[in-house]
Design goal:
This protein is of the alpha+beta class. The chain has two domains: 23-67 and 92-237, Sandwich (Immunoglobulin-like); 247-335, Immunoglobulin-like (Sandwich), CATH 2.60.40.420. 39% of the residues lie in helices and 18% in strands. The chain is built from eight helices and twelve strands. It has helices at residues 6-19, 32-68, 84-116, 227-238, 247-258, 298-306, 308-311, 324-335; strands at 123-130, 133-138, 147-150, 152-156, 161-167, 172-175, 183-185, 190-195, 201-207, 219-225, 288-289, 294-295. The strands form three sheets. Strands 3-2-1-5-8 form a five-stranded mixed sheet. A five-stranded mixed sheet has the order 4-10-9-6-7. A two-stranded antiparallel ribbon has the order 11-12. The chain is elongated. The chain starts with 5 loop residues before the first helix and ends with a helix. The mean pLDDT is 87.
């Protein structure tokens, strides 16, 4: 059998390291809660790995010893001879298991309590899971300072965010592995999870509970920003949608408001205020379409409007009959909503 080439070995190592880094991995913690989970995981891996190696070592020793001394069994009774050293070793082994399990239980309890502690002055965000997209609402005591977006979550670094999790139809599960653990979104029940980002960057959250045909296509872009950048983004999101400035954009707005689009979507500053589908007020500023299914480009937006079921079979968005020219005008209008 030929030994693997150096290039193949390098590729395998690169693939292994890639699995430990990235926008959706618990092995690269970028938040306070994820670091706590990482500590527990590494402790369990260390303790259980050490015990596993000892079990294999003792098993190999027992097999070797049995082959070296096949007469250990007493013919008259069928029982092994008394061996004080072996009995003491078993006692030490039992003590090690007890100590290992006890330490893991205590560590889990301490970490669980620290993660459950309520953070002072958190950023309050309500996340509602739908088949198959996320509604994200930033709450504020002043209604005019609350904002709604979809399939994207922006958080300021080093500030706790208290996420209120609501399920609108079936059971979903919110999981941003770089920042924290999983939490279910159950219809009729409100759950909470706190995330405290410690590193600026782009991450990805995912529904971690099978919720239907397009479960795998239910992602959420998670952006951690500096406080200044977050405040700037929030101020931009609070602005009403810009008015159409070209003939195609004006015609596209008319198409949007006169067709089925207006029955499901909302665009601030217009007559569209439905809430059964994503808010499109600033859709052009989002990195993806259809809950992470497609990069947000004019070509992809056009294809998505033309036939949503082509990309997400079973999606609730209907196919709206539009001519090619009307579709171009609608895309021109939506592309101006930044």
């Amino acid at each position: 059998m030929r030994a693997p080439s150096a290039a193949l070995q390098a590729s395998a190592c690169a693939l292994l390291l890639t699995g430990c880094k990235g926008v959706q991995t618990m092995l690269d913690p970028a938040g306070e809660q994820a670091r706590h989970i990482d500590v527990i995981w590494r402790a369990m891996l260390g303790v259980c790995g050490f015990m596993y190696v000892l079990v294999l070592a003792f098993l190999a020793w027992a097999i070797w010893r049995a082959r070296r001394a096949p007469g250990l069994m007493e013919p008259a009774t069928g029982h092994t001879a008394s061996e004080p050293r072996l009995e003491r070793s078993l006692g030490v082994w039992a003590a090690m298991i007890t100590a290992g399990l006890t330490s893991l239980v205590l560590l889990s309890f301490v970490v669980d309590r620290s993660m459950a502690a309520r953070a002072p002055q958190p950023l309050d965000v309500t996340i509602t899971a739908n088949q198959w997209w996320w509604q994200v609402r930033y709450e504020d005591g002043r209604p005019d300072q609350s904002l709604t977006t979809a399939n994207e979550l922006h958080l300021p670094v080093d500030r706790p965010a208290r996420l209120k999790l609501v399920g609108s139809d079936v059971i979903h599960s919110f999981w941003a592995p770089n920042l924290g653990g999983k939490q279910d979104l159950i219809p009729g029940r409100t759950n909470y999870v706190t995330l405290t980002p410690r590193r600026v960057g782009q991450f990805r959250a995912q529904c971690a509970e099978f919720c239907g045909l397009q479960h795998a296509h239910m992602a959420l872009t998670l952006t951690v920003q500096t406080p200044l950048a977050f405040d700037r983004w929030r101020a931009e999101q609070l602005q009403a949608a810009p008015s159409p400035g070209t003939p195609d954009q004006i015609a596209g707005q008319h198409i949007f408001l006169s067709r089925a689009c207006v029955l499901c979507h909302a665009i601030s500053g217009t007559q569209a205020n439905a809430t059964s589908a994503p808010d499109l007020t600033h859709i052009a500023s989002r990195p993806t379409l259809a809950a992470g299914s497609l990069p947000n480009t004019p070509a992809n937006l056009k294809s998505w409007i033309e036939d949503p079921a082509r990309f997400k079979p079973g999606v609730n968005m209907p196919k709206v009959p539009l001519s090619g020219h009307e579709l171009d005008q609608l895309v021109a209008y939506l592309e101006a909503l930044k």
